[in-house]
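Handout, section B. The chain below has 300 residues.
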Amino acid sequence: MAIPDLNLLIALDILLDESSVTRAAERLHLSPPAMSRALAKIRELVGDPVLVRSGRNLVPTPRALELRDSVKAAVEMAQQVFTPADLVDPSKLSRTFYVRTNDFSFGEIVRKLNLALQVQAPMCSLCIVPEGTMDDHALAEGRIDLYVSRRRDFSPDTKLQQLFFTTFVGIAREDHPLFSSVITPATFASYGQISISRRGRARGPIDQQLQTLGLSRHVSFVSPSLLASLFYLMDTDLILPTMPNHMLSMVNRMGLKLKTFELPVEVDSVEVVQAWHPRLDNDPGHQWFRRLVKEVSAEM
């Protein structure tokens, strides 16, 4: 029996990731016709169409979905076999790291991480995958390499590492009337506020603290993006009460005319972690990247 071309396994893995012949060809540095020929060979070997057209897009067949995890595991195992841990040279590493995060957790780290990658691993790329409105199985399915954000409930086998804790301050335009007197819980609650939530939530721990004082606030605007919200402060009397301290250096470099203030209510600090699937625990390239994330985060 003839041994199939194992390069087709890599092609299948990327095709299932991208659901696009064109994008898969770009990742493998092939022409689209060459990628199409590879897909034809894969279909013949698997005995299944693998990807079928739905409108303008390609979607995986049930058989392809069934194979996805085993294909990715086989490719990653082969990479480990041919890349011994003690021979990993970041300067020669060519890899795209997919990180799911948000600008709340990772905004300043991304800047420093990109600078470090350019120096240490210039052939590597960083792709930030935004968080969705619902948690999914992206880590287990291999669609992302790393999750970086506040600690949450993960599956029991997920690997975790603490990166840092962050505390919060409030922030508003520098000539905001809030700064004309002592900031009390009552004056704080009297101004319209911005809530940062990818799920569209307007209420949180601040509201619980205010409630114990017999106060409430009005959330005028809910945004999924912390950085975009900073620009909404410039011409309004809105305030943003959940500005992470580790992001303040980035705000200063942006040159925005904003001013921070100590919150008049207690808000707990937040633990930021990095999480990954155990399948990648011993992957040399992934180990190096995790160490880099940890090193950069230690500067927060």
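Note. The chain is about 40% helix and 20% strand. Compare this with the example in section A.
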